[in-house]
Specification:
single chain, 3 helices
Length: 101
């Protein structure tokens, strides 16, 4: 998984590409660290560029949600499609995290 970030007036956007899998758990620390940057109200994780997500990747989204919530930042997962959308729907992540299609 690769990611790129950009600042917006009210938060941070992080665009993920490739595959979000167990082997990416070290990269999660880099993404979580972004929550400690300039005060943001929203943290958008754009997953439109993901081709695959496994159960560990779904867990990483939940970890991000927990970290964001502790800092009073709203986490939004944007643009899931294909198999990634199906995995997010099956895991009912939308009951915990805001999903924007």
């Amino acid at each position: 998984m690769d990611f790129q970030t950009r600042s917006t007036p009210d938060g941070i956007e992080c665009r993920l590409t490739g595959r979000l899998e167990f082997t990416d758990h070290d990269r999660l620390r880099d993404i979580v660290a972004l929550l400690d940057g300039p005060k943001a109200r929203r943290f958008v994780v754009d997953v439109a560029g993901l081709d695959f997500i496994d159960s560990a990747g779904l867990g990483m989204i939940l970890i991000l949600q927990e970290e964001a919530e502790q800092k009073n930042i709203r986490l939004i997962v944007r643009g899931p499609r294909g198999d990634v959308k199906r995995s997010i729907d099956l895991a009912k992540i939308g009951e915990i995290v805001t999903i924007e299609t």
